[in-house]
Design a protein that fits this description.
The protein is 29% helix and 48% strand. By secondary structure, the protein is an alpha+beta fold. The protein has a six-stranded mixed beta sheet with strand order 2-1-6-5-4-3. The longest helix is centred in the N-terminal third of the chain and has 18 residues. 24% of the residues are buried.
């Protein structure tokens, strides 16, 4: 099965949930992630807790690369101004019965 335009749109929507949620709270980000997701190899709750501890911010982000093959995708996101820091994230997503979900996030500060 090849990825459709709707798949690309749905993946972008998931990334938007992640980006907008990252400015608000861990709870706001959760719908973007699979419950078993990881961040740099740690449980995803680590991300949610970190966002809650940092508090609200007004970072901006963009998708630099989006690659989809069947039911998997990889997205590179550049985020600027998250509490004064800039980051590059790589997200691996999988299409599930609940739609596209982030399974893994790996990031580095730039």
């Amino acid at each position: 099965m090849n990825a459709s335009v709707k798949d690309y749109e749905d993946i972008v929507s998931v990334v938007q949930i992640y980006l907008e949620g990252g400015n608000k709270s861990g709870e706001a980000m959760k719908p973007a992630f699979d419950p078993a997701a990881t961040i740099n190899g740690a449980p995803i709750q680590t991300l949610f807790d970190g966002v809650d501890q940092a508090g609200e911010t007004n970072a901006v982000g963009r998708i630099d690369v989006l690659d989809v093959v069947n039911d998997i995708a990889c997205v590179r996101v550049t985020m600027q101004g998250w509490h004064g820091q800039d980051f590059v994230d790589f997200h691996v997503l999988r299409k599930t019965e609940n739609g596209w979900k982030i399974l893994a996030k790996v990031f580095t500060a730039i």
